[in-house]
Design goal:
Length: 451
Amino acid sequence: MAEIRFEDRAFGNNPHQIGKQRLRIGRDPSCQIQILDKNISRQHAEVFRVGEMCFIRDLNSRNGLSVNDCRAKEELLRDGDKIQIGATTLIFSDRGAPEFADDEKDTDDLSAVSLNLEDLNDPATLTDIATRRLRFLCRLGDALADDENLEELSEQILPLVGEQFAAATYVFTRQTGGAITPLGSFLPNGCEPGKISKAIIKRTLLERRALRIDDAHGDERFQAEDSVITRNIGAVLCAPLSATSAIDGVLYLAAPTAEQKFSDDDLELLAATAAQLGAALARQRDYRQLEDDFWGTLTALTKIFEQPAERAEAVARAAVTIARHLALPPRSRHYLQLAGLLHRLGEISAPEYDRVSAAPAAAPRQYGERTLALIRPFDRSGELEKILHSVFSGQYRFADAPLEAQILGMTIEMFGRLDPTDSAAVGDATARIIRELTPNHAHETIHPQSA
């Protein structure tokens, strides 16, 4: 049985066994392994099992952890490993764990072939079709892993697909009522716009599989379709965007010339691409639903606790408006909206907080510290805390402060002076902040509701 124990018996003699449940390590009383050390975060790390292997993961703690004197974010544990957290040393033991070879010995005797994935971006290495396709799949995976929204996703993915297949590339999504609408398109250099066949798209959705059509005129499945005949549809690849039983649309490729044909390998590659894109679209759909539920719940809570809610919501809206005009990415706008709603959360626990007259810009430092303590367990990336810390400490006033923190700090100051219901004054003040952060651009009066 895998277990973890204190090296210093003064902390306790009983080992903690690692089963199906994760073991949390930190100062918080809820942790299975509680260590009362000011250098250790409340939720510092966790130990968990995957099959027969055990891992330790740092939970975005302030001071991190080490395994065998090496800093680690997430590490596979082996029998006898020493884990250093703050001033405390823990010993991991598991005599039944899988054995691993000592990677540090006899490396000169190894005979191995390696591939540097960065080399796949070097055109000199693209010597054959298999290598080019491997490069395409690697780039596709990177783009899908970093998707932000549907529009940005199509802007990243479609050029990759179009260049790989040297064909006009389109993606269509199916709406709630069944209507098929275009999401995006890409034409490689020198490629004419392809001809779209609704009949082929409908057939792909009906058969729920990828189709390759070399000559639609000679394909008996489309003999009755006027669109195929009259529009002279040539070679086409069409694959469904499907992650589960639902089909969200199709990925459609049209050959630029009558001479170009697609191969079975092209069909398989496009089908795999469409499946990954379908999974990404499904994730985004689920994420949007969760985000809507989250913001609705959060807004309701701010109203319940009277932060006051109207001011917190106004700060969040104005900050996002400014971020949009400064072309900040969606992730930054997300954290700004959240920071704006939560910037006065610490005042809830204040014993005699005057909810009417207290101005956000004048919030005492202890309220800021309370806010950071309340949001820290939910801020795994640390981005939210970074923004709020810069605001609470006043560092946002310096030019080298994160732009998100400058936006939020200036917005909070603005609402410390203005009535959030005065739309004209708020719009003028918002425009002034934008001009101050982008002195080379002039902006009209902006209403925060545009966020």
